Amino acid sequence: MTLRDTNGTGIILINEGALLPPGAAIETEPFLPGWRAVKNLDRTALTQNIKAAHWTFFYLAGDIRATVLGSNRPATIRKAAKRALARQDGRIYNALEITSVEAKNFLGIPYVSVIAHSRHIQQDLCLVPVKTFASRIAVPQREEVVAMPLKPLISSL
Fold first, then answer.
1. Which runs of E-coded beta strand occur in the chain?
2. Which of 9, 19, 42, 70 fits a disulfide with 76 by CB distance 3.0 to 4.6 angstroms?
3. How far is CA 79 from each of CA 33, 83, 124, rounded to the nearest angstrom?
4. Residue 12: which of 47, 62, 51, 56 has the closest Cα?
5. Per-residue pLDDT tens for 19-70?
């Protein structure tokens, strides 16, 4: 699915440095510096392709919205996608899916609103690596555990 064939909805961008499953037939084309658009697969086909390789294609909740001035043209959609990528709040995900593109006018001035969702392609089933997750859990020191007062489990009536 290319930008030429669509109004921009359904475009999936993949970071150029992203690891992809070996043997996956994913064709891309340049979209923005550092990002490529998947051109031969839609979201469903891409997900099936990644799952067939025993990898995971995460969909992250929470939309990313961007609005730019201009009519519904490829250059304007690229500009809006660039703004959406900048709004990922420092999260390091290797893909982005544009889920909605709306061209509107306000007082005769055209603008395009884009809604996108962060996506992530990886081999593991957990988005947060187990080592990272386990290292973030605060484990009380032994002295703290011993010093904690015990509370009765059953209250007397």
1. 12-15, 28-32, 35-38, 56-59, 64-69, 95-106, 109-122
2. 70
3. 12, 6, 32
4. 47
5. 888 878 889 999 999 999 998 888 888 889 899 888 989 988 888 999 999 9
